């Protein structure tokens, strides 16, 4: 390997906040990014070498990206695995993680089946195409259950709780497409593990505790406030998940710690979902670890050595979400309190418009006492408001 | 204050490695950079919003920069204070630090006089315009002495040791312009303090120990391996220096810790030189502190609150210098060993060409034992070589 100028170039499908933070992490390493995103002047644009304006599924854009890059990756699951596969073959530019892994993850039913087959503990689930099938499945799984669109859902979109047989028809209508239904897991807490596959090596970041409201991640606490045994079991499950993935990169692995030990499972950890990319629950690693999840992804997709995943200090981060009623230009007040708090870090994603619950940035704080950090970061975040 | 997209914009005269690292630090804060530099695709270019291609003294370029920015700053002392002053007046865009401070610092004789007048302890010095004046000054200061060009020198360039009266004529010829001569300080170690002036606040980063060879900085160790008393005295001197500066920003303050206590001075710290900008001896703050010197400079020039200057862990950084015989395309081998060492961080500046002793990047490591870190970082750095 060598360093040159311009340096190795990573082509990224998607240029949202994840692309932006990939760019921030790549620069010190001498790695350049070119991103492809349909929104002109996307969040990543000001911090990367170049943006190609084009859709996530637009093959000519992806081909241009491949021609300018040493390796292709994606920061959004809407990337098209077929197009990526064809472009990789035509241009010789490798894609990481493998398009086949992206394809598997895009369909929540296929994802769950693949992982269950690989021995990863998952909640009980069934594929359902009709209201009758949904009712039948729920008879076995019990009410309430969670109906999920097989594709396209994120941040809770596409997920519909079903509390009884009378809900089934409306729920199927709402999902409006291929679906799966899962038992509603009674969990003690939600956890996430950022796993990484490098060139012949694999590793996990310390287990993160995630706090959701309205199915959207609000805060991440690291290390998770769980027992050593639970954290170790979460790491084991994450390593099993990594073994079922193809290609290199960072994977966001969301888990449930169940309230009761489960029969038929080795422990109380169940897999919820996987993202084949850096994940919101790993943003804390920017300040909390020696290597951030973004630097790790850059290293991994280029086939360079992974960095240490060791934690530096207990760390909490909180998402800044749009607290507005409708889509409008983003003007946020109150960041002075974040900037004037020692060990608090503001991350602004550079989105021009805010809409309800849109992820606009995050605040991270390092320290010793996770409960205190969680309270303090929450308060700092709550002090940030968008003008209406 | 607010955050918007695009965010507040800092216009930077100069787009070398300091501009690049300013851009890396500004991005998470939602702050954009536009840099002006005569070299197309300068090191900062790939990580900032835009580069204007133009000379550091080119007033039309600086005016365009001012029109696109909320505040102007500079990352190179070759910036023209007169042009900055005129442009600030014409456009209303403020300049930080103040052009008057830049003007003072550009002339080493004026700098020393100003600081001596402000009560800052400095080595004995004299302005000299002729060989006779040089010999006369050296009679008072003693041989050997150090003759310095008043303007334009850096990394030891423009500095000529004078070991006896017979050297004087050749030394004056070599400097070839307005000069000053200083006593040769017998120092125990060299120190540096990154000082910062914010909007109504001032602070210093932990005192750094700097190791030079051939008058070029090679390694920085933080905190300096000096007594608490020496470090406290260095901080006091740095604060006195800051009080003599106008405008906001980070200042690199280079100091000598003398081998013997000095009469006529309160302690054993003497000021060597000041840079009105982030400085090589503060690069370790990127990993070593909660706030880096680059983030601090961005905060300061925008008038936003300063971040904490608290250290996270003892940290050492080592410069990667061109180990070649002549100017050529930069291709560096050996970075794999840096990337595979836990807690080691590679910083590559993106320069297309390497020449002898050119600063091409640096390696930083955090840990506990500074002696061990210094040995290990030195070894990692020495393993990086440029193809000839």
Please provide a written account of the structure.
The structure is a homodimer of 388-residue chains. Chain A is α+β, with helices and mostly antiparallel strands. The first copy, chain A, has 3 domains: 9-95, Rossmann fold (3-Layer(aba) Sandwich); 124-183, Dna Ligase, domain 1, CATH 3.30.1490; 187-386, 2-Layer Sandwich (D-amino Acid Aminotransferase, Chain A, domain 1). Helices cover 30% and strands 29% of the residues of chain A. The first copy, chain A, contains 12 helices and 22 strands. Chain A has helices at 17-26, 59-68, 81-91, 99-106, 108-117, 131-141, 168-175, 228-243, 285-288, 293-302, 335-339, 370-382; strands at residues 2-4, 9-13, 32-37, 50-53, 71-74, 125-128, 145-149, 159-162, 179-183, 187-197, 202-204, 208-213, 216-222, 249-258, 269-275, 315-321, 328-329, 331-333, 344-348, 353-354, 359-366, 385-386. In chain A, strands 10, 11, 12, 13, 14, 15, 16, 19 and 21 form a 9-stranded antiparallel sheet that branches. In chain A, strands 4-3-2-5 form a 4-stranded parallel sheet, with helices on both faces. In chain A, strands 6-9-7-8 form a 4-stranded antiparallel sheet, sandwiched between helices. In chain A, helix 1 links the parallel strand 2 and strand 3 (32-37). The longest helix of chain A is centred in the middle third of the chain and has 16 residues, at 228-243. Chain A is globular, with a radius of gyration of 21 Å. The model of chain A has no long low-confidence stretch (mean pLDDT 95). The interface between A and B is large, with 55 and 55 residues.
């Amino acid at each position: 390997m060598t360093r040159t100028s311009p340096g190795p170039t990573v082509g990224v499908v998607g240029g949202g906040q994840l692309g932006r933070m990939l760019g921030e992490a790549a620069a010190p390493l001498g790695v350049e990014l070119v991103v492809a995103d349909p929104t002109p002047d996307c969040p990543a644009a000001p911090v990367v070498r170049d943006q190609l304006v084009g859709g996530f599924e637009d093959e000519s854009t992806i081909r241009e990206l491949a021609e300018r890059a040493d390796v292709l990756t994606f920061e959004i699951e809407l990337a098209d695995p077929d197009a990526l596969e064809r472009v990789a073959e035509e241009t010789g530019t490798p894609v990481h993680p493998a398009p086949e892994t992206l394809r598997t993850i895009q369909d929540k039913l296929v994802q769950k089946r693949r992982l269950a087959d690989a021995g990863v503990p998952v909640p009980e689930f069934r594929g359902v195409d009709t209201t009758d099938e949904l009712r039948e499945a729920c008879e076995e799984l019990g009410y309430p259950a969670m109906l999920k669109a097989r594709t396209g859902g994120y941040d809770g979109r596409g997920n519909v709780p079903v509390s009884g047989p009378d809900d089934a028809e409306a729920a199927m209508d709402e999902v409006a497409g291929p679906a799966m239904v899962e038992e509603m897991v009674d969990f003690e807490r939600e956890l996430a593990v950022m796993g990484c596959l490098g060139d012949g090596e694999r590793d996990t970041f310390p287990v993160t505790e995630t706090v959701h409201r309205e199915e959207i991640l609000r805060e991440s606490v690291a290390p998770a406030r769980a027992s050593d045994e639970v954290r170790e079991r979460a790491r084991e499950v994450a390593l099993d998940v990594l073994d079922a993935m193809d290609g290199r990169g960072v994977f966001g692995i969301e888990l449930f710690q169940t309230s009761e030990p489960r029969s038929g499972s080795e422990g109380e950890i169940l897999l919820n979902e996987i993202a084949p990319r850096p994940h919101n629950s790993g943003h804390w690693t920017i300040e909390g670890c020696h290597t951030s999840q973004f630097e790790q992804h850059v290293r991994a997709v280029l086939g360079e050595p992974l960095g240490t995943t060791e934690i530096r200090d207990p760390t909490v981060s909180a998402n800044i979400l749009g607290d507005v009623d409708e889509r409008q230009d983003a003007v946020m007040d109150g960041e002075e309190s974040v900037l004037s708090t020692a060990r608090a870090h503001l991350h602004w994603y550079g989105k021009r418009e805010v809409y309800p619950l849109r992820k606009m940035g995050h605040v991270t704080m390092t320290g010793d006492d996770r409960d205190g950090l969680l309270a303090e970061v929450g308060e700092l975040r709550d002090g940030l408001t968008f003008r209406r």
